[in-house]
Amino acid sequence: MVSGFQKFLLRGNLIDLAVGVIIGAAFGGVVTALTNGVIMPIIGIFGGVPNFDALQLTVNGSVFKYGTFLTALINFLITAAVVYFFVITPFAHLMERFKRQEREVVAEPSNEEKLLAEIRDALTAPPLNR
Asked: Domain for residue 47, yes or no?
């Protein structure tokens, strides 16, 4: 039972997933820094930094802070746009540029096809002069 668990832990997919999560978390910090340090100030120049945290609705003593959700939603959309335009799009262009020209693979005839071709050629060949 322990050896099965050990095999599960040491499978390549699990290790790859762990590395992906760690790299993703580190990359998340880079994207957050880019968004908060560069993109948000640029947006702030034109209309102020979007912050709706103060918006709320009170019904029968219950406070609904929908402004916090709006701020998080806008931050998510800005972060998604940053990732798409500054990471995904350039990476796709880079991969397209370095992509090898794929040549069409010509399938080699099987042994049966070769034998049938030899028989066909022998039948269509002119008779030998004897």
From this structure: yes
Interhelix angle for 12-34 vs 66-83, to 10°? 110
Structural domain boundaries, residue 106: 2-116
- Token pair, residue 118, equals 């030899």
**For residue range 105-126, what is the model confidence (pLDDT) as tens digits?**
778 888 898 899 989 988 888 8
Residue 129 is assigned to a structural domain of this protein = no
Task: Say how far apart CA 39 and CA 34 lie, in whole Å.
Answer: 7
Which CATH number fits the domain that encloses residue 25?
1.10.1200
**What are the CA-CA distances from residue 53 to residues 2, 46, 57 (Å)?**
50, 20, 12
* Nearest residue to 56 (alpha-carbon basis) of 48, 66, 69: 66
pTM reported for the whole predicted model: 0.54
Reported in sequence order, the residue ranges of the chain that DSSP labels E, i.e. its strands, are 57-59, 62-64
